[in-house]
Amino acid sequence: MPEETISKDNPLTDTGAGAPGRQMNMIEAINDALDIMMARDPDIVILGEDVGYFGGVFRATAGLQKKFGRNRVFDAPINECGIIGAAVGMAAYGLRPVPEIQFADYIYPGLDQLVSEAARMRYRSAGEFTSPITIRSPFGGGIFGGQTHSQSPEAMFTHVAGLKTIIPATPHDAKGLLIAAIEDNDPVMFFEPKRIYNGPFGGDYDKPSRTWKGHPGGEVPEGYYKIPLGKARIVREGEALTVLCYGTMVHVAEAVLADKGVDAEIIDLRSLVPLDIETVEKSVQKTGKCLVIHEATRTSGFGAELVTLVQERCFYHLEAPVERVTGFDTPYPHSLEWAYFPGPVRIGEAVDRLMKD
Amino acid sequence: MAEGPVEKGIARGNLPPLELYVPEPKYRPGDVVDYSHLPVPPAGLLARPDETCPASETWPLTLDMVRVLDDDDHAVGAWNPGLDPETLRRMLRTMALTRAFDDRLYRSQRQGKTSFYMKCTGEEAISVACAMALAGDDMVFPSYRQQGILISRGYPLVDMVNQIYSNRADPLKGRQLPIMYSAKDYGFFSISGNLATQFPQAVGWAMASAIKGDTRIATAFIGEGSSAEGDFHAAMTFAAVYNAPVVLHVVNNQWAISSFSGFAGAERTTFAARATGYGIAGLRVDGNDALAVYAAMEWAANRARANQGPTLIEHFTYRAEGHSTSDDPSAYRSAQEREEWPLGDPIMRLKKHLIALGEWSEEQQEAMDRELVEQVKVATKEAEKNGILGHGMHHPFHTMFEDVFEELPWHLEEQAAQAMRERGIKWPEWKERDDA
Known about the structure:
The structure holds 2 protein chains of 2 kinds.
Chain A: E1 21-23, H1 26-40, E2 44-48, H2 64-68, E3 73-75, H3 80-93, E4 96-97, H4 111-117, H5 121-124, E5 134-139, H6 154-158, E6 164-166, H7 171-183, E7 188-193, E8 219-221, E9 233-236, E10 241-245, H8 248-260, E11 264-268, E12 271-273, H9 277-287, E13 290-293, H10 302-314, E14 323-325, H11 337-340, H12 344-355
Parallel strand pairs in A: 2-3, 2-4, 5-7, 6-7, 10-11, 10-13, 13-14
Antiparallel strand pairs in A: 1-8, 6-12, 9-11
Helix pairs in contact in A: 1-7, 3-4, 8-12, 9-10
Chain B: H1 59-62, H2 85-110, H3 124-133, E1 139-141, H4 147-152, H5 157-165, H6 198-211, E2 218-223, H7 230-241, E3 246-252, E4 255-256, E5 259-260, H8 274-278, E6 281-286, H9 290-305, E7 311-316, H10 336-340, H11 346-356, H12 362-384, H13 410-426
Parallel strand pairs in B: 1-2, 2-3, 3-7, 6-7
Antiparallel strand pairs in B: 4-5
């Protein structure tokens, strides 16, 4: 297995091995990762709704069927149970499937195959059978997708023993993490924040949208590299406050804290399970304050886990109650999407509360 | 018997290696389309079994195609429902209104007045003729392409547009993606963006009607693509086991976004033939022939109401437009398919039939079309007074937190207060309108 190529000291810009970077959006980076891995490993197959000739509704698999053939990249019937169940069977044979679920909101018919089967296969067969499956799925809101194209269900999966849950926040990370996920020998949920497929989003829906051009995370090294699962990225070092976030919310947090001029340490978790607890602990022990942000609904969200871990491990370092900013406990509404979204105002209020002393 | 673990990959003489079969549609962009391989049987040939017949008598019909309108625009054969000209004109008008509505609201989406739209172009006969063959109080569990049923049942166009614009008069309070209507008073179940979920629900509604000794039946629609979902098979099993008074429709419009019907099993047999395996009645219908659709729906509804149980109906049709405003079909199928589709256009066919009867004319059609365009325009203008998406004229903020539960628990009240406070911070001048 090749060495990890991302140094821990400067995980964002040090792309390792002096590989030249290329400007990509997140879709292109994902496509590039799939392309590279398909070429390296003949056991990798891609299946999902519309992923073949069409290349996926978000174009993440564009060109792959043409290049690798219909034997390795193929459309699937509209049946998520079948997609994931077949992936479990292919993995039992020895393949390494990378199924796509078109929207995270559509994954529920496949839950039994995922939760009762893929996640426990290694355990129940004492390692005889494994499920080295990476399930890619766009998730999150901010595109007026209504309640069935906007959900952030990651916490459901982090709650399942045996599943890893990965969420990239930049094209650079999307590629490196996806390669690591595919090489991982356990089932990995790979949730892609679709709001930032084409560019980072600072949370102001009434400002013009940006592309990845000029963003350091949009510089994607050529060729193979991977970012180990379970390693967070320190987006910005700081002393005043630790911000724990992932996906789209990384960019919203960055924009809000820059705007407020707070010397925050922003941590992009990248991997929820396994979690980089060491980086979290070190940071909170340094700053004494912690803000957790996610777009998903609040109750029993992954934020609850993070807050608990922080108080268990950093209680005597804390100078203020840990704050949690999330989506509301409603389905994702269509017209009031931006009232639901945990945007700059909600985050700003929490930062003010934390920084008031 | 072999002893010990199995040996893998043993040589089997000169047997060829196994091969994976992956379906591929006949035509891709730029291809010349030739549908001569599609069997289109002549209209009027099939027998119409009695509505109380054993299910097995219908099974030959699942492999054939019920057609009423012939090539000379006459209604022929045992399945001709024998509708009077007034009813036929109403059917034509409702189909044309559905198309006019689609055309205008599609343009509204392109003009940025809403986020999303889905047309049913080419499939108007299925919704409208089914709605007309049902009783007004029968319950419909639609997919997202049955706007013709709502229109047929007289649901106000302006409220459809209000929903599409997610504005302050939206009956669904701006919560749902455009066209995901819900209209209980019109016997029209809340549409889900998740596929096929309505199929077992329709069976459950029908079982409830039977439990209560009611006379109403249920009906549900899905596309051929989503018939691959487990929900379809759950529905079929329950319908069969409980002999439920339900009519289950598969609208086979050939395409599920970019996946052709082969990815739902169409290369092996018809969708109607799935009825056989479950032991229930099945019919396969020319979905672009409004009279055949009406006749099949009427037959199945009568059967269900007579306690003779469920029917599966496949409507063979063509999705003439993209899946939705988010889709570009020119990327995956030949544009010529629509022109070459051998079953024609349902509105044109019904129009020609009425003209052949001497009950209609091209001039009347043109006048009607102008009138319908105006009717839709009036409705959209009226709806626009209530706002378009993203321009601030939406339901009050508190409504976002209502209906999660019957009553708001403390945490949702707190979150509602939070949302209002955020609004005040972002827009200090803003005041919630109380006339919404």
